[in-house]
Amino acid sequence: MNGAQALLRTMVDAGITACFTNPGTSEMHFVAALDSVPEMRAVLAAFEGVATGAADGYARMSDSPGATLLHLGAGLGNGLANLHNARRAKVPIINIVGDHATYHRQYDAQLQSDIETVARNVSTWVRTSSETEAVARDTVDAIQAAVGPPGQVATLILPADVSWNEGAQPLQAPPHAAPPSPSAEKVDEVARALRGGGRSAILLGGRALREPSLFAAARVSAATGAKLLVEVFPTRLERGRGLPAGERLAYIPELAAVQLDGLKHLVLVDAKAPVSFFAYPGKRSYLVPGGCEVHELAAPSDDVGGALEALVDALDAQTMGIARQPPSRPTVPTGRLNAEKACDVIGAVLPEGAIVSDESLTSGVTLPASTAGAPPHDWLTLTGGAIGQGLPVAVGAALACPDRPVFALEADGSSLYTIQSLWTMAREQLNVTVVIFNNRSYAILNMELARVGAQTAGPRAKEQLDLGRPDVDFVAIGNGFGVPSRRVDTAEEMIDALRRATAEPGPHLIEALVPPMFTPLQLRAMPHALRVLGILPRPLAAAIKRRLSP
Amino acid sequence: MNGAQALLRTMVDAGITACFTNPGTSEMHFVAALDSVPEMRAVLAAFEGVATGAADGYARMSDSPGATLLHLGAGLGNGLANLHNARRAKVPIINIVGDHATYHRQYDAQLQSDIETVARNVSTWVRTSSETEAVARDTVDAIQAAVGPPGQVATLILPADVSWNEGAQPLQAPPHAAPPSPSAEKVDEVARALRGGGRSAILLGGRALREPSLFAAARVSAATGAKLLVEVFPTRLERGRGLPAGERLAYIPELAAVQLDGLKHLVLVDAKAPVSFFAYPGKRSYLVPGGCEVHELAAPSDDVGGALEALVDALDAQTMGIARQPPSRPTVPTGRLNAEKACDVIGAVLPEGAIVSDESLTSGVTLPASTAGAPPHDWLTLTGGAIGQGLPVAVGAALACPDRPVFALEADGSSLYTIQSLWTMAREQLNVTVVIFNNRSYAILNMELARVGAQTAGPRAKEQLDLGRPDVDFVAIGNGFGVPSRRVDTAEEMIDALRRATAEPGPHLIEALVPPMFTPLQLRAMPHALRVLGILPRPLAAAIKRRLSP
Fold first, then answer.
1. pLDDT tens, B465-519?
2. What is the phi/psi pair of residue A69, to 5°?
3. Whether this model's pTM surpasses 0.80
4. What are phi and psi of A47, to 5 degrees?
5. Are B152 and B90 in contact (CB under 8 A)?
6. Who among B78, B285, B476 is closest to A81 (CB)?
């Protein structure tokens, strides 16, 4: 068999059976090989950012690596932003990047560039396969690197002749090695710290946000009084009615500081010590309060679930009663929509087993509260901050879980980066309901403009944050890509549209017209309000914080 | 003033007065500074690939560097493909890439990545500005690097605090140094070679495709009998009625080989010795025939026009009569459209002074012939092979030349990579007529699939090249982005649509429904036909080549 066939066979034998593709000439033998390896499902994207984000969403929901097929350095570049998000999500991804034939490189033809330099930005593991006989071995190494833990982005560059030459054989990937457990000393240290009195919190991230770990952490919390915190942008958070509910760290650092205020011990479980998303003039970047001791119970490379279980054992907390999220649904709103009402509508109808890909940014500020008591569901977020992730992640999640309803909750500006996702949703008839919160602006940047102290901004600056002129007609665009689309501007219409969308198979798009979440006056007041928050007594500040970002 | 203000002022003082932007939080002070430097026009894009491609198109038509504002590594990644095209086009581009504040980097926040590694893929010059006092100096260095010649991509990474801190002063960029002239020996060597008998050709690329150089080259051709060749993907080719017309090298290497066959001397002027775009199993990559001597009259870093003038002098050819393209228009076609008729329609109506951004790929195979005798116009092509360039380049060209009609001739698949360009066209009310040749497939890949010898491809492979299922409705998408759009499927409708589009100000989109340029039978026969071409007697092969790709 040729190199491409051996690569595909090796992937399929390792359980990797989906690949998100945007091929070019140098990948034609990979494409041709698809017919001889029918177990591999190739899902075509009309833009590489869709392919990489879909691979991420697929991996988040299937717990198996996501794979992509990309065309040289330019194709990898187009996919880079969502690979960045996958890297930050610690999600296993294997990129197959086609390259010119090895003997063609010396001629520096038009499409040639140094692919490895681009790949390094996101990939822990990068290799250029140099001969056909080695392709299967390279593929096995890529899979092992990607799987981790932690999950990583591995990029295998496949020159066209290495792909088309004969003489390759598939290889069996070895079973994944079990990740290390934390030492008994580490577990004891954490148990002592949590038992020792003083305010403490457990910050859960990565794989610690899945059901078994959440229950273990809740037992620890019940036994010690430690607060359960959830990292600001979870890869995949299992939540809803009946599940232990952590408090998600706020995006705005002043609010996160209130959540962390007064802590003596912070225990990290597959999470980083919290830092500000951006730097702001005169503000601290590192958010752990002075005097707080940080303990890393489990690093991302560790057996995260095992570490939490060991801590439960050390605390004799196996039978502790735990706090579970009570069932609740928001009161169904009526009348003219705004962002808060739209969030309540979603909370009112969210079905059991839903997967939510959340890139709603400012419009979704109240979403966590609106959906907290909904039936159990998964919440996937913008892990790396590179917008344009939500729609592709929904594509991948829907392919991984064809029997579950997927919701892509999108800010208007963010959706445009990878709007071509709609075409793949239509092509594959995925059960995705896309909600575009259309406030006709980069609303988050209006907030950030005020926050970074650039309040003196004039009309030319503000124009850079305005997505009106012309207003984007998402219904037309959705229909243009083959997704039945509808515009709503009342709560009643939105409920009706959501019910119809989830009742019918295939994708649907709902454009929800909402004003920006914050008025200009609120934006101007925000820096001052946040400053005040920092000097208020703790209970008052916490109460305000809960109102601002529940 | 702060760093951002000094940077903008330095750029404006150097004559750089347009910047294509997609900012985020770390660029908010740059955005805020726009109001204090009103000479800088900031053009917002809804996706970074639009911004980088527009900067390229702007630079091609303004002969001044194109500038972008991008958001960290992810934003640069999204813009990378079109920066690759700009690099290959030898077009001067200055990227300003915002980064986290210098003191924030140690915390490895979500959006952080190694920006320089991404930048190096496309940039000859990369620097991270490390202090506010140095920003203006860094900006001057970036401008000098970008201007060249040859034009290059320069990337200046601007940390947020370097941007927002006070204490910067603008700097005056020094005048550009004159590029070196070729030595008298080199000119004599070329003159001797061309006079010495034997078949010879002059291959013009880069800046040698502008009017003065074309006239000089035509005199050399008239004096020596050397054939005038044009590189396969010109950055900016001035052509049409009354101008000297070179023969553009074919994309398909077997056809290019016929054009180069039998040459004894090939003179390069701001061009590379021709190589195959891709490698194909068993085919040569280097297309210069054995026994042909290659002479580089002027490298891209040289005074290209001066070199050609020196050659004219050396040949005493100053007063030679030259061959000019006679005026001609295709016969206006009628009836059901196909790609060839659509090209003839364009040739029939192309107005004087038009700028054509050509990314029509297979559908545009006959475009060069259909437009050869049209009134003088500029032709901009896909210089680096990274598709998704045509629409953004049209955006930039229209901003650089507001009084000239711009045509973006697009393959359906290619247009989708940067379809968000339509929004900027609508926002800025640019005089761009977009023609989408919609054949509902990646037709060029169907050709390449046959060409790379993967003829055994089955249905799953072919599905990867199919853009139907669902058909993209470009009229809906165009309207959705605010561009008045219309579908045509007869020649008469297309003429009417083109006339209306050029008569009204602002952008228009015409979706031209055409079957793929090559039938499946032709695709299967192509490799054999091309093989035969190589063994035919030269005049017969040349005649066939002219029919296949005029």
1. 888 889 999 999 999 999 999 999 999 999 999 999 999 999 999 999 999 988 8
2. -125, 120
3. yes
4. -160, 140
5. yes
6. B78
